[in-house]
Write a structure and sequence with these properties.
The structure holds two protein chains of two kinds. In chain A, the strands form two sheets. In chain A, strands 1, 2, 3, 4, 5 and 6 form a six-stranded parallel sheet that branches. Chain A is built from five helices and eight strands, in the order βαβαβαβαββββα. By secondary structure, chain A is of the alpha/beta class. In chain A, 43% of the residues lie in helices and 20% in strands. In chain A, helix 1 links the parallel strand 1 (2-7) and strand 2 (34-39). Chain B is built from eleven helices and twelve strands. In chain B, strands 1-2-3-5-8-9-10-12 form an eight-stranded parallel β-barrel, surrounded by nine helices. In chain B, strands 6-7 form a two-stranded antiparallel sheet. In chain B, helix 7 links the parallel strand 9 and strand 10 (240-248). In chain B, helix 1 (32-48) crosses helix 2 (69-79), helix 1 (32-48) runs parallel beside helix 11 (325-347) and helix 2 runs parallel beside helix 3 (97-111). Chain B is globular, with a radius of gyration of 19 Å. The chains are: A alpha/beta, B alpha/beta. At the A-B interface, loops of A face helix 8 and helix 9 of B.
Chain lengths: 188, 351
């Protein structure tokens, strides 16, 4: 199984801190799994111009292909202007419309306060649904007071991340089995 | 200009994109030399079998071998006798219409008046960098160059100026094709928007439909005919060709088993995502355009499409994804002996 943990912002530290925790939890609980961390702050990504994702080069092509090759993706996103950052939306725009078919998507949202708790419901899930992801329904929401010095200081958030990782793993392995059975049912 | 005699029924043709992919059953990847030669042989078989049309596409990317499709068509023109030949499609956006016209007029002379041009915009965009064009001009390049191509076809001496090419002042574009003009089609993809443009402009439409419900593609056909009428043209004068995936074997099960790995692995390599097994399985239904199955099943589908569309030409893509030459030969044989006679019988005038 191939998992990508995506930190979906080029600024700030909370999302990256939470995604680091996601990666650590995967490595601790499921050491046999290949988890790749992609922090958009580390890449120079061009805007989508509508071409097929295989035709992007450099960082853009690398990130697009990594996401397309993943079986499951955990998306970390801060909240900017009552929505996800443009940098993250651009990643979705780079990919085909059904890019997340047969992929599991888990969500970690970070924010300054709880005021925008529903942004994942109203802004991110519709995009993932349109792109045909199997969404892990419960997401993790963490806010400013849960972080200090680039560490998660609220144990509850750590536990919630642990549950998200487990849910993502269980859904991904179960879904792979379902698909295999489905594909085997065909006569070709 | 329209060379289709509808009293003979629905025309049946073949197109190849010129893809050059490994055979997923064996892993064998033939050389580009062998692939190009096999495409020419393929055209000869189609000609000998009495098919109406054979066309070759232009794709400038990995896993393709007919970038210089007009050169391949020239060889096909020489190697065949009766079959009409064309492009599927010529990317007019990134070519000089004068050169394209010179090439195809020459192919027309070599073939004794059998050449046609199908002009498209390219679904992949790597060729814009390769050939030195700006992707931001995607729409404008096509519309301007396609208009110029049509003007050259109408007028031997051309006066023209535009944005993307040096002006033409009393320019004579020669040689002229055998009958003075070439049939020029507009290649149209999935959505009705492009079909509507073809209709307003009064250009024959070549509609690609790889898989999905026949009813969905009918929307583009209806939109095309409505736009023709609104644009002051008579839809009766404008032929429609539909083009889709095709694979025949003795039984539907055998066709699906043999063909699925070709289309699935081929699309994965060229587009990055495979063909879902469920969509492929649903494709068996007579109401889906996917022409994969026994000859009888394919006949029923094409006749169903003809009833829905009232189109003039069906074009099969049966070599995609590294289909080996012996299978191509087998398909042509099944078309010649079973599919074609039935389609002609049931679609010709008075049937």
């Amino acid at each position: 199984m191939n998992i990508v943990a995506l930190s979906g912002s080029v600024v700030g530290s909370k999302t990256r801190t939470a995604i680091n925790e996601v990666v650590r939890t995967f490595e601790k609980n499921y050491p046999e799994i290949d988890v790749q961390l992609i922090d958009l702050a580390d890449y120079n990504i061009q805007f989508s111009d509508g071409r097929n994702y295989l035709e992007y080069e450099g960082d853009t092509g690398f990130v697009a292909k990594a996401l397309m090759d993943a079986d499951a993706i955990i998306i970390g996103s801060p909240i900017f202007q009552a929505s996800i950052p443009g940098a993250l939306k651009n990643i979705f725009d780079l990919l085909p419309v059904q890019a997340f078919t047969d992929k599991i998507a888990g969500i970690v949202m970070t924010a300054g306060s709880a005021k925008h708790y529903l942004v994942a419901e109203q802004q991110l899930k519709p995009i993932l649904g349109y792109m045909k992801a199997q969404i892990v329904q419960s997401y993790v929401f963490a806010e400013e007071k849960d972080f200090s010095q680039k560490q998660i200081v609220n144990n509850d958030v750590s536990f919630r991340i642990e549950r998200l990782v487990e849910d993502t793993y269980v859904l991904a392995t179960t879904y792979a089995k379902i698909r295999e059975e489905q594909d085997d049912a065909y006569d070709f | 200009m329209n060379r289709i005699d509808q009293s003979n029924g629905l025309e049946f043709g073949i197109y190849t994109l010129g893809d050059h992919l490994p055979n997923p059953h064996t892993g064998e990847h033939i050389s580009a030399e062998q692939r190009v030669k096999e495409i020419i042989e393929f055209a000869k078989l189609a000609d000998q079998a009495g098919l109406d049309f054979f066309s070759v596409g232009e794709s400038h990317q990995d896993y393709f071998a007919t970038q210089a499709h007009s050169v391949v068509l020239a060889a096909i023109a020489q190697a065949t006798k009766n079959i009409k030949i064309g492009s599927s499609s010529t990317i007019i956006s990134t070519s000089d219409p004068v050169r394209v016209y010179e090439d195809f007029a020459t192919v027309d002379l070599i073939s004794g008046g059998r050449a046609e041009i199908i002009a498209g915009r390219a679904s992949r965009v790597g060729l814009y960098d390769l050939l030195g064009y700006n992707l931001r001009d995607y729409e404008a390049l096509f519309e301007e160059k396609f208009d110029l191509l049509r003007k050259i076809n109408e007028e031997e001496v051309v006066n023209w100026s535009g944005e993307f090419r040096a002006p033409l002042n009393d320019a004579r574009v020669i040689p002229r094709p055998k009958e003075g003009k070439l049939p020029i089609w507009r290649a149209v993809g999935g959505t009705p928007a492009s079909a509507i443009k073809a209709g307003y402009a009064g250009v024959p439409m070549f509609l690609a439909h790889l898989a999905g419900p026949t009813a969905v593609f009918k929307r583009s056909i209806d939109a095309y005919r409505a736009a023709l009428t609104e644009g002051g043209h008579d839809p009766v004068d404008f032929p429609i060709a539909t083009a889709g995936l095709f694979f025949a074997a003795e039984t539907t099960q055998e066709a699906q088993r043999t063909y699925y790995p070709h289309v699935n692995e081929g699309i994965k390599l060229t587009n990055g995502q495979g063909f879902s097994k469920r969509a492929f399985a649903q494709g068996e239904d007579v109401r889906d355009v996917l022409a994969v199955g026994s000859p009888q099943q394919i006949i029923e589908k094409i006749l169903y499409q003809h009833e829905m569309y009232g189109h003039q030409r069906y074009i099969a893509q049966l070599d995609f994804g590294g289909v080996p030459f012996e299978q191509i030969r087998k398909n042509i044989e099944l078309i010649a002996t079973e599919v074609l006679p039935a389609i002609r019988k049931y679609t010709k005038e008075g049937s």
